[in-house]
């Protein structure tokens, strides 16, 4: 998953595709929602290593980065105005937790009117069952679920 995402992002940056990168972190438990996932409550702190972006997929000199407070990159962040300013019509969603963050971001992208693509080999989850179930469902309703290679070909074709 990480290698495919890094490969896709390299092509996207080379073709001047706007990229919004996010992480989830909180100052204290008081400023976080009522997460049922203990790992989020325990580890997603601004001073915890889990809030550090992996340099294999994050380019500090290119990407717009946001700290998100819920599952979706769109919820209460400046991502939509950034995409509108950049003239984005299609959003490609990669990352962790297909059953949580990927699903929420996919639905929000769809609701904002963007064509949405989820490269299935650039997303993952803790368990294979929820990962597959959610990919199948968002593919039925909200997004095109493609391979990283297909998305790379799409980027190259649409940015000529």
UniProtKB/TrEMBL annotation:
InterPro entries: Isochorismatase-like_dom, Isochorismatase-like_hydrls, Isochorismatase-like_sf. The keyword Hydrolase applies. Residues 1-150 form the Isochorismatase-like domain. It holds the Pfam family Isochorismatase. GO terms for molecular function: hydrolase activity. Keywords: Hydrolase. The keyword Hydrolase applies. Signal peptide: none annotated. It comes from the Bacteria. PANTHER family: ISOCHORISMATASE HYDROLASE, PEROXYUREIDOACRYLATE/UREIDOACRYLATE AMIDOHYDROLASE-RELATED. This is Isochorismatase family protein. It comes from Paraburkholderia polaris.
């Amino acid at each position: 998953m990480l290698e495919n995402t890094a490969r896709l992002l390299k092509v996207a940056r080379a073709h001047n595709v706007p990229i919004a990168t996010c992480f989830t972190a909180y100052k204290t438990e008081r400023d976080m929602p009522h997460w049922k996932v203990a790992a989020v409550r325990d580890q997603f702190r601004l001073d915890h290593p889990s809030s550090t972006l992996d340099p294999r997929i994050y380019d500090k000199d290119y990407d717009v980065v946001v700290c998100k407070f819920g599952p979706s990159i769109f919820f209460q962040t400046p991502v939509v105005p950034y995409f509108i300013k950049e003239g984005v019509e299609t959003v490609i969603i990669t990352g962790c937790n297909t059953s949580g963050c990927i699903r929420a971001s996919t639905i929000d992208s769809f609701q904002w009117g963007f064509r949405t693509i989820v490269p299935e080999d650039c997303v993952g989850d803790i368990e294979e069952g929820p990962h597959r179930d959610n990919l199948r469902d968002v593919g039925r309703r909200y997004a095109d679920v493609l391979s990283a290679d297909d998305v790379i070909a799409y980027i190259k074709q649409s940015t000529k």
